[in-house]
Amino acid sequence: MSPRAKNRLEPAKTNPDFIRNFCIIAHIDHGKSTLADRMLQLTGIVDDRSMRAQYLDRMDIERERGITIKSQAVRMPWELEGQTYALNMIDTPGHVDFTYEVSRSLAACEGAVLLVDAAQGIEAQTLANLYLAMENDLEIIPVLNKIDLPAAQPEKYAEELANLIGGDPADCLRVSGKTGIGVDELLDKIIRTVPAPVGDPNAPARAMIFDSVYDSYRGVVTYVRMIDGHLAPRERIQMMSTRAVHEALEIGVSSPEPEVTKGLGVGEVGYLITGVKDVRQSKVGDTVTTVAKPATEALKGYSEPLPMVFSGIYPIDGSDYPNLRDALDKLKLSDAALVYEPETSVALGFGFRCGFLGLLHLEIVTERLEREFGLDLIATAPSVVYEVTMDDGREITVTNPSEFPTGKVKKVLEPMVRATILSPKDYVGVIMELCQGRRGVMVDMQYLGEDRVQLRYTLPLAEIVFDFFDQLKSKTQGYGSLDYEEVGLAEGDLVKVDILLQGDQVDAFSAIVHRDKAYAYGVLMTGKLRELIPRQQFEVPIQAAVGARIIARESIRAMRKDVLAKCYGGDISRKRKLLEKQKEGKKRMKMVGRVEVPQEAFIAALSNGDEKKADKKGK
Amino acid sequence: MPTFHAYVHVPFCRVRCGYCDFNTYTATELNGYPQTAFLSHLRSEIALSLVQVGRRELETVFFGGGTPTLLPATELVEALSILIESFGLAEGADVTTEANPDTVDEAYLLALRDGGFNRISFGMQSAVPEVLAILDRTHNPDSVAKNVTLAKRLGFQTSVDLIYGAPGETMGQWQESVEAALGMNPDHISAYALIIEPGTKLARQIASGERPSPDEDLQADKYEWLDSRLAAAGYSWYELSNWSRSSENASRHNMAYWEGQDWWGFGPGAHSHVSGKRWSNVKHPSNYAALLGENSIPSTDLEELSETEQLEERAMLGLRLRTGLDLDVVRKLNPRSSKPISELVAEELLDGRQALLGRAVLTLKGRLLADLVLRKVLGL
Q1: What's the CA gap between A494 and B176, in Å, rounded?
Q2: Which residues of A fall within a CB distance of 8 Å from B22?
Q3: Dihedral sign, Cα of residue A61, residue A67, residue A69, residue A71
Q4: Bridge partners of B193?
Q5: Can you tell me the distance from the alpha carbon of A417 to that of A440, in angstroms, rounded to the nearest whole number?
Q6: DSSP-derived pairing of the beta strands B58-65 and B89-99
Q7: Which of A109, B63, B239, B330 has the smallest number of CB atoms closer than 10 Å to its CB?
Q8: Beta-carbon neighbour count of residue A94 at 10 Å?
Q9: What pLDDT sits at residue A94?
Q10: Contact A386, A395 (CB under 8 A)
């Protein structure tokens, strides 16, 4: 076993030859955080006493769900054959929504540990990140984790990995993040196989931002990988995309707690603090240089995050609206991809139209709003961005179905994705059925091993934002995994379906759907609302309409009885309390025309298929 | 000065009916509380109440339950005489007990009459054996008619209680029950829509799908049919669920509740309303007995009603009566009530002529929507 390094290399002065920058690519639940925990312990930078599970996952949500949302970098010392090295482990977010951030993390590394659960094999998400890593020319170290599990099949999955990346199945390391088996060998192997970073120490400074995190005490903490040159504290630095100038108040490395250094040199990974309060001033992918000796060319690969999925977020209690606004303003400081603007809805009152990178991003943001800010929220069904061209040539971008233009529509473009689905071969039939039902067109299908299949489909994004993933999971008994990437826009035969209560449109239920599905949506929503809306004093027709044409209709019969039969034995208080309760209930009633609808009815109608979420809250 | 009334709650039943969530206990649920001790506990509470309110003549006395007639007639009579000795009884006062048709006979009724009772309210519920079975009622439907006849002969005023809307009860079965009740020629009829109370056996049966849930439209049909049938037979409504041959036959005790008079409810779980305060007694007989043993009034959740709350109660209860609700009360609670009132008149839920005379009086359609009408006039 390699000994722990006795002397650490001093940051800012480390010879790039003794630096190794690597990341770990893994699927959720495949044990990345646990493996990272063992590395922290083994290299001695976290002592056993302060060790806690998933040390690097900072947010409660990350730790609870076992996923990494924001990345982080840790510098660890390790000795091999008498030489001390500095290993920088750059943690990558593990979800499709954060592909851009993943790509920036990968760009900061020379090598990647491909970590696969020895009982489950590779999943679509991992595959996607593996492709990214290979595109970035990273050295790949295949590793099977959880070999201590009785269900582990290392032979089978080593074969699978060898098929994917080439090489000998025997080269695939076997480790257990839980017991620590094989972790020291892995560290040795990283030093042996990952190339040392290369850069020009005398060139103008260029550092790539691969993450930017808001810390309420220190402001924005910017994580960078030095490519060329050197950065020192108190230096005036410049962001190349915005030309904004800041002073580097503090420079350091994470080990894993922040450690102030005299700067950062070629190949090093560390953080900068400039005192800015908004992550938008320190954008992932941007290049940092110095004012004194500015670089002329920015590093490649920078792009602005683009929201893909939109949803209206409303406080359940209308008086929470200002709190929701404050919460979003605060969240924005740490989440550069979150966009929002005020919106009002007949059904839901005042809220915000929010844009997200994807569904997980949406879920994380709403959960953080609820948890960290104590808000009760309702989110409308997620929708995508449509480009609508009218007959008169006008072009309209629609992010909210209720804004879909009336009048003659020439064409509607919708965002498409290329979806990659991995699954045991037994489920190919149901997956194909699911994708075809969602307007999917198959690109190809290939076997990864004896019994695992990769299917690729082109699908409209709108078809997967709703419950595609849940459906996939349930139809494949949890074995199917999904990844997708945007592939531009395509024309679709799309219409807007409106839901009318007594002739009044209920904006929250308007949906843009394929013409063939309009009827099904109309029947579903009118039926659901008929069940959920209490009877009124008069009959209430519920209609689904495409333009002026009614495609589905239900009605709620007039209420004939609303009276408590008896005041038991003089128990007047009971009746008065009922009246009080009705008074309270009235506050939660929304008026759609003359129809009184309890907010719960809208919420129930919107949150169908969300038992999972309800479950989680119930715990 | 409000009038003063006494309610005595006898919290014992032989079996618990599937729809019932009243404060009543079968022998096994009493946890060792001896039924024979009940009279002495009543005596203690009456003594405490006398200290509290002073001597105020009783306008009515009403024994309810539970099943008051599970007690020997002598004990009911004894309880009544303690009340009368303590407070006095107004000339011509109604003294009523509820009776389970199977627990009384001629000797029992005679003892009650001689002890000062003059009104009997029989828990008939239905005349149809299948419906009684759904309700878990164990009495023989034939004994109701027999006992009503007997009670009338002995000089009692009589009332029968009916329940409509048991799960599965048809319109035909309901009509059969109403005809049977009319055949007994009682002075007074109460008819209550069955409410499925949470926690009851019936609620569980409905939740599990064993029985259908009540159909509100059918209940409304049953109410409308009942009202016209009773009107044809000479009974008119004076409260949403109560009909009588003449105003003299109305339940004066129940009217006291609806008019907001003062009453003391004796016995476990009984509710009281005296001088703007409401409270109820602790529910279990053992706890009730324990508090009385410490010489304290066995009450819980005492509330003093604010002026607004008192007005709200007047509105809530007054609207249920045929005499209706003074629109001045409504205006105090909701200065912008004229619009909803005119709408309700237009919708034929309130009587238009009465509205012009300054009263909110429900129409037949309005009676079925009384809670909605109340919310609207109060602007809730």
Answers
A1: 59
A2: 568-569
A3: positive
A4: B164
A5: 10
A6: parallel
A7: B239
A8: 26
A9: 59
A10: no
Interface of B with A (CB under 8 A): 7, 9, 22, 64, 192-195, 216-217, 219-220, 223, 240-241, 257-258, 263, 265, 270-273, 278, 280, 301, 303, 309, 312-313, 316-317, 347, 367-372, 374-375, 380
Nearest to B380 among A568, A572, A583 (CB): A583
Averaged confidence pLDDT in chain A: 86
Taking each helix axis from N to C terminus, what angle separates A428-437 and A468-475, rounded to the nearest 10 degrees?
160
pLDDT in tens, A497-530: 999 999 988 888 889 999 999 999 999 999 999 9
Cβ atoms of A7 and A83 within 8 Å: the answer is: no
Model pLDDT for residues A311-352, shown as the tens digit of each residue:
999 998 888 999 999 999 888 877 778 899 999 887 788 999
The CA distance from A241 to B285, in Å, is: 80
- Strand positions, DSSP E, A327-408: 339-345, 349-356, 377-379, 386-390, 395-398
Q: Which residues of B touch A561 (CB under 8 A)?
A: 193, 216-217, 219-220, 223, 368-369
- Position A69: which residue type? I
Q: CB of A206 within 8 A of CB of A299?
A: yes
Higher pLDDT, A110 or A616: A110
Distance CA A264, CA A123 (A): 36
Q: Which two tokens stand for residue A100?
A: 């851009």
Written as six digits, the tokens of A247 are: 């002073």
Q: Are strands A409-424 and A452-460 parallel, antiparallel or unpaired?
A: antiparallel
**Facing A586 at nearest CB: one of B217, B301, B380:** B380
Tens digits of residue pLDDT in B73-125: 999 999 999 999 999 999 999 999 999 988 899 999 999 999 999 999 999 99
Over pLDDT 70: what percentage of chain A?
92
- Beta strand A349-356 pairing with A339-345: antiparallel
Which residues have a Cβ under 8 Å from the Cβ of A536 and sit 6 or more positions away? A556, A558, A559, A594, A595, A596
Residues of chain A positioned with their CB less than 8 A from the CB of B193: 561, 563, 565
CB contact under 8 A, A565 and B240: yes
Q: Where does the pLDDT of residue A359 fall: very low under 50, low under 70, confident under 90, or very high at 90 and above? A: confident
pTM of the model: 0.66
| Residue of B30, B141, B15 lying closest to B70 (CA atoms) | B15
- Judging contacts by C-beta atoms under 8 Å, the chain A residues touching residue B271 are 569-573
B9 min Cα distance to partner chain A (Å): 9
Write down the residue that tokens 């159909």 correspond to: B215
- ipTM reported for the complex, 2 dp: 0.83
